[in-house]
Structures are given as C-alpha cells and as structure tokens.
User: Which sequence fits this backbone?
C-alpha cells in the first residue's frame, strides 16, 4: 500500500513521501487548465483531475483541490464557482446535488496537541453528500460528515456532524431546523 492510499484510509502515513509532490503537481497543472476555461471547455481537464465526474455534471471555475483523484461527483450535479475541496480522504458527491459558491469541504484536521501540529500531522476522514442535496453558498463541511439525501444546508453554515435525510440544517455549527416534506 502506498503512502497516498494510507492517507486516504486515515492511517499513519509519511507526509514527506515524494509521491505527494508528484500528485500535487499533477493536480496543480490540471487546475490551471480548468481555471482558465469555462464549463464545457474545462470538462476534459476536470475529468482527468477527478476520480469520477458524472454525466451532465458541471464544475464551475475557479475550483480548488489538493489531489482531485479522491473526489467523485455523480450525475446532474452542479458545483458552483469558488468551491474548495481539501481531499486528503475521499469526497463523494451524489446525483442531482447543488453546491453553492465558495463552499469548502475539509477532510483533514490537525491535533489539538501543539506538539503534533508542529510536525504537521494530519488525520483525515471522508465526506459524503448523498443524492438530491442542496448546499447553500459559503458552507463549510468538516471531515467525517455525511449529508443525507434530499437535505438542505443553509448558506453560511458549518456542518460538523452528520445530517439526516430530508432535513434542513443551518447555523454555526449547523443544527437541525426542520424535517422537509418529500
């Protein structure tokens, strides 16, 4: 198992392994190509960058990520401009999802112990967004979170815990507001 695979699984890995430099450079070069284009002209580069990009899905430039190859996006999904995905673990976005501008997905976190932070140690957990979710603009989604199908996250929210399907969540930190009628 290589160091990148270890990182994605959330187990101890060598962050100084040369493979990370290679992966970051590849992603950086593709992001430059993506962010100089709009929509359809950018799509071939987005397809190269991501693990999966579903049919009829759009990733609006500018878009930022660290590796790209851990990000899967389903069909008919719209990722608005200015989205950042720190993808040290898998990020899975379902079908028919709307992601508002400047939304941020954070799979890594650092220790509360300053000695570990001095070593830049990182622990990562995946993020999952199920089908038919609407995420408002300027939302932060933290590591390990699953957002259940058909849910809505209000603009400006910080999602630190799982969201049940068919729910409206909002605030900082995001809290349950009400069940949505489906």
Assistant:
């Amino acid at each position: 198992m290589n160091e990148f695979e270890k990182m994605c699984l959330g187990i101890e890995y060598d962050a100084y392994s040369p493979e990370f430099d290679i992966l970051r450079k590849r992603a950086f070069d593709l992001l430059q190509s993506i962010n100089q284009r709009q929509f359809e002209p950018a799509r071939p580069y987005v397809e190269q960058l991501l693990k999966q990009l579903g049919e009829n899905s759009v990733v609006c430039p500018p878009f930022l990520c660290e590796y790209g190859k851990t990000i899967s996006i389903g069909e008919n999904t719209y990722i608005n401009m200015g989205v950042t995905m720190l993808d040290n673990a898998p990020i899975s976005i379902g079908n028919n999802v709307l992601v508002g501008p400047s939304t941020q997905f954070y799979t890594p976190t650092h220790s509360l112990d300053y000695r570990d932070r001095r070593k830049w140690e990182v622990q990562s957990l995946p993020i999952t967004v199920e089908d038919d979710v609407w995420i408002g603009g300027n939302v932060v989604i933290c590591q390990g979170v699953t957002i259940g199908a058909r849910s809505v996250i209000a603009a400006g929210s910080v999602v630190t815990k799982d969201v049940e399907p068919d729910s409206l969540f909002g605030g900082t930190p995001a809290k349950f507001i009400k069940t949505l009628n489906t």
In short: The chain has one domain: 3-168. The chain has a mean pLDDT of 95. DSSP finds four helices and 19 strands in the chain. The helical segments are 3-8, 18-34, 39-49, 114-118.
